[in-house]
Design goal:
aromatic amino acid biosynthesis, binds indole-3-glycerol phosphate, two-stranded antiparallel ribbon, 267 residues, TIM Barrel, alpha/beta
């Protein structure tokens, strides 16, 4: 049976193909050249040396939760997350399933100094050009969505373009593939993109296979300082947080509270 992930990938491929036929490549190249990527992995490492490195996600909606935040202003969200101490931003750019946009990435990226991730389903190198043109410093590559030859192609193209890669896995087999392919920044998604089940235990279990030179990011379902403490103890140094902050009336204050909180309280 086709999963939600299959559906998203098919839709993404069709839309990318359509954009490729009408794109103004010269303009995209010019915009990409005008954005000097800020090191995403280096930024996370520097932050993680001092405190839990939080990647704050600018996320309006999701297929599993529907609309998450109606009062949605990516530029001010970006600023408030930076001020509150986020190490980096993640901006959803998938329109059909997450109500995201490359424009949101663009306005968020110019508003801050911290590095920004283009959060989307990357299936074609054209999306890397779009990413850098819109101010991305890193892209996401989802192991469950790509073959090893595609992962290799997109990894090499990202390196050529100066973009860092956050490689996302969900189980032991995918983690092995990511390590085998040489990814040094690996995100373990607690949410299975095929079923939307969230399994924090699996995230903790997978940390034991972390190679020494790899920075691991815990992703999804993180809502409290206790969650961060648990994942930190397992070996995670960075944490991707979306919904829990986006649902707060003041997401910046909520992030500051999360970072200040040494007690295992819910935010
Ligand atoms: O909103 P949450 O539960 O804090 O999750 C954030 C992030 O991990 C999630 O948005 C995500 C992780 N991997 C993805 C891949 C595509 C789209 C979205 C995602």
């Amino acid at each position: 049976m086709a999963t939600k992930l299959d559906e998203i990938l098919a839709d993404t491929r069709a839309k990318v193909d359509a954009r490729k036929t009408t794109a103004d490549y010269a303009a995209l190249e010019r915009r990409a050249a005008a954005h000097m990527p800020r090191g995403f992995a280096a930024g996370l490492r520097a932050a993680a040396a001092k405190r839990p490195a939080i990647i704050s996600e600018i996320k309006k909606a999701s297929p599993s939760k529907g609309l998450i935040r109606g009062d949605f202003h990516p530029e001010s969200l970006a600023r408030m997350f930076e001020t509150a101490g986020a190490a980096a931003l993640s901006v959803l750019t998938n329109e059909a399933f997450f109500q995201g946009s490359l424009e949101y990435l663009e306005v968020a990226s110019v508003a801050v100094k911290i590095p920004c991730l283009r959060k989307d389903f990357m299936v074609d190198r054209f999306q890397l050009l779009e990413a850098r043109a819109s101010g991305a410093d890193a892209i996401l590559l989802i192991v469950a969505a790509l073959t090893d030859p595609m992962l290799t192609e997109l990894r090499d193209e990202a390196a050529r373009m100066g973009l860092d890669v956050l490689c996302e896995v969900h189980d032991r087999q995918e983690l092995e593939r990511a390590v085998q392919l040489g990814f040094k920044l690996i995100g373990v998604n607690s949410r299975d993109l095929r079923t939307f089940t969230v399994s924090p235990e699996l995230v903790i279990e997978l940390a034991q296979w972390k190679p020494a030179d790899t920075l691991m990011v815990a992703e999804s379902g993180i809502g409290s300082a206790a969650d961060i403490a648990r994942y930190s103890a397992a070996g995670y140094e960075a944490f991707l947080v979306g919904e829990a902050l986006m649902r707060q009336p003041d997401p910046g204050a909520a992030l500051a509270a999360l970072l200040a909180c040494e007690c295992p309280a819910e935010i």
